[in-house]
From TrEMBL:
One of its GO terms (molecular function) is DNA binding. The keyword Transmembrane helix does not apply. InterPro entries: Homeodomain-like_sf, HTH_TetR, Tet_transcr_reg_TetR-rel_C_sf, TetR_C. Keywords: DNA-binding, Transcription, Transcription regulation. Transmembrane segments: none annotated. Residues 5-65 form the HTH tetR-type domain. Pfam families: TetR_C_13 (PF16925), TetR_N (PF00440). The keyword Ribonucleoprotein does not apply. Gene3D superfamilies: Tetracycline Repressor, domain 2. Residues 28-47 bind DNA. This is TetR family transcriptional regulator. SUPFAM superfamilies: Homeodomain-like (SSF46689), Tetracyclin repressor-like, C-terminal domain (SSF48498).
Length: 196
């Protein structure tokens, strides 16, 4: 890796949390300078503009979140138990460092839907990819006879993602986990009802 590549990686890694917490519009050049300790010239010598940094930061945040779940899921064999990782983890998302600031997909979706077409496209792609991964897991469970054969994989995947993201949003806004616990309890029942 070249020095320029290392510097770009450093900038993305350092600014990712700021973009997730403050959003694109709320993140200033001063924030980028403060969190990286680099000059404006150094930052913009490695990235064309704030847009380019924000897009890379979104990818970084999304990839970290995906890797976090994948690491936990990959240690489990049974498909139903693998799906149950989502509500188990999310009951505690407020105290998990990777979730500081909330879900990057949700945060970006709500901010960029009308204001930033490139970030909106990335968020839509991330949601679609997440739903696809869940649907693949459900199909795996059907093949392994762990999940009922008549389960509509994509329907369940879409409902799971919608339930998760809306519960995270409400928890962030209300700063209360009571609704989150209700939603994750419901999600656990939904997943358990898939069992063959």
């Amino acid at each position: 890796m070249t020095k320029a590549e290392r510097t770009r990686q450093f900038i993305v890694k350092k600014t990712a949390a700021i973009f997730n917490e403050k959003g694109y519009a709320g993140t200033s050049l001063s924030d980028l300078i403060n969190v990286t300790g680099l000059s404006k010239g150094c930052i913009y010598g490695n990235f064309k503009n704030k847009d380019e940094i924000a897009l890379a930061a979104f990818d970084f945040n999304k990839d970290r979140l995906s890797a976090y779940f994948e690491n936990k899921i990959s240690k489990i064999e049974n498909s139903v138990e693998r799906l149950l990782v989502y509500p188990k983890v999310l009951r505690n998302f407020l105290i998990i460092p990777i979730w500081k600031g909330g879900c990057p997909i949700l945060n970006t979706s709500t901010e960029a839907d009308d204001t930033h077409p490139l970030l909106k496209k990335k968020a839509a792609s991330a949601l679609s990819s997440w739903q696809d991964r869940i649907a693949v897991e459900i199909k795996r469970g059907i093949e392994r006879k762990e999940i009922k054969a008549d389960t509509h994989a994509m329907e369940v995947a879409v409902v799971m993602v919608l339930l998760i993201e809306s519960a995270v949003m409400q928890t962030k806004v209300s700063e209360s986990t009571s609704e989150l616990n209700i939603a994750m309890g419901f999600l656990e029942k939904l997943i358990r009802n898939l069992e063959a």
